[in-house]
Structure formats: structure tokens, C-alpha cells
Design a protein that fits this description.
The chain is an alpha+beta fold. It is built from 11 helices and 12 strands. It has a 7-stranded antiparallel β-sheet with strand order 1-3-4-11-6-9-12, with helices on both faces. The protein has a 5-stranded antiparallel β-sheet with strand order 2-5-10-7-8, with no helix packed on it. It is globular and about 65 Å long.
Amino acid sequence: MYTSYSTHLLPPQDRQDYWKEVVEQTYFPLEIRFANPSQFHGSLSQLKLDKLGLSYLASSSICFEREQQQICNELEPCFLITLPLNKPVHFSQANHSVCCQPEGFILERSDLPYRFSYDSDNALWVLRVPVCELKSKIRDPERYLYMQFDRRQGVGAMFFDYLQSVVKQALYTDPVTSAVLSNQLIDLLVLSLKNDDRVLMSHEEGIRRAHLVNIEAFVRDNLGRAELSPDMIAAACNISTRYLHKLFKESDQTVSQWIKELRLQAALSDIKTHRSTTLAEIAYRWGFNDQAHFCRLFKARFNCTPKEMRHSH
């Protein structure tokens, strides 16, 4: 689904209210401050790509503020990946500030207050990724918040090129293809984050992250094994089970909850894209030996049964 909006044909006195309505329909409730209200102009195009939202925004100087009272009723928090094209953007959240140059991109959280602005005419891409989707691909993505990533070369450039290519061809794709493209775009984003080596870590933090990388690799390689457990993971990664649980203590999920979420997200992806594969085969592929138990977990997580999800796609 592709929609476009513009203030071009509106009288100046109507543009502010119209722009606020458009922005809130596309993203979520925000306070907007216009640097020069009488001269403001803006356009916005948005594309729905399976579970992702992708938008292109161009406007004169502006400031967006997300306040705590606007967050309380948000149903599905997401990460925002912002890629400015012409001028720097200034972003502040949770006592962190970053000035992202046009050759870079940054990650933000939608469920925390923030301030976002640019001082002159600008254009930018914004990719909305549900928190659960990114967490199913990369462990603890919050550690990549408030950093500028390079989109000029390497995997970052591949991610940006692919994003633009998807936009150009999205109107010609069916829902199954859109789901595949969506997954590939998230995979390239994850690779661009993981391949960034600018951050100098302390020795202790370096050891912790090295363990988490090994744990994540082992879990993803063995996700289909029903016997996968904290004890098995700890033994394979040469750490104690107690230390494994300690590594996860700072996150919002236990080891077992994380494994369950990874399995359910993997099953969801297969249900959408592998229509010739039976639901029982998908459940077994991702470590669910009891299909009835799988159906209960799936419905609790996605508010519909696997069969209903397949019929809706």
C-alpha cells in the first residue's frame, strides 16, 4: 500500500494542522514546532511492506517532540531507522544526543520521549521496524541506539541501496514477495549494525559481548532442536548456566523467553512465505513437538491461530 501527501496546494494557514495530521497518521502522536509557519512546506510518501513501514519525508525546517503522555497507549513499539539525505538531523533521547550527517543513519525508539529536528530544508527516509521483529534477528538491539552508522560503503551501503530498490519495485510485488523483501531488508540492517567496529569497549564489556555473540550464534543454529535449553547453551558456549542467566539479567527477556520468541517469529515467517509447507511441519521445524502447544503459544503471541494467520495471507 502506497500513499502520498503534500502541503503544496494548501493555503499557508492550513498547512500546519494538515501536516500534524499526516505525520501522526504515518507514525504516532507528536508535538510539532514549525520554525517558519507562514513559509512551511512538506511532502510525505509512505509504503507498507508486510510488517515494516517505510516513508520518505521532505520539508522545511521543523522540530518533532515525542512526549511521555503520547506513548502510554502505543500498542506496538518500534525502532525507527532514520536516513537523512540533504542536511544533518539532531536527535535526543534518554540523555543521549546525536547529530546524524546525510551519509549516515541512526536508530531510535518510538516508546521513549525524544526530540528530533533539522534546521533547513531536508529530506529523509524513515524505516519503522517493530521491536519484536528486530529482536528476533539480533540480540539486544538497544545497544546500537544513539550511534551514527555509515551508509556510504560496505553493508551499510548495501542496506541503503536495497531499501531504495525495494521502494521502486514494491508496487509490483504480491504479499508473499513483500514478506520476503521485508525479511531481507531487516537482515541487511542487522548485518550493517553487527559489522560496525567503531565502538571501543572495556575489557569486561568486550568479554560479555563476545559471550552473547557465541550464545546467539549457537541458539540460531540449533533453534529447531526441541531439546534446546539453557543448560545445553551454557555447555556449548563453555560457560556456566548461572553465568548465562546473569548475561540475560539486564535484558527484558529470560533465555527461555528469548528462545520462544525466536521460534514463534521464525514460524510466523514460514507461515506467511511457505504456503506449501503444512503447519505441523513448520511447528516441528522450529522445535515445537506438540502442535496443540504450538497453537496455544502462537495465539497468545499473535492474537490468532496459525491457520487464521495463513488464511489472512
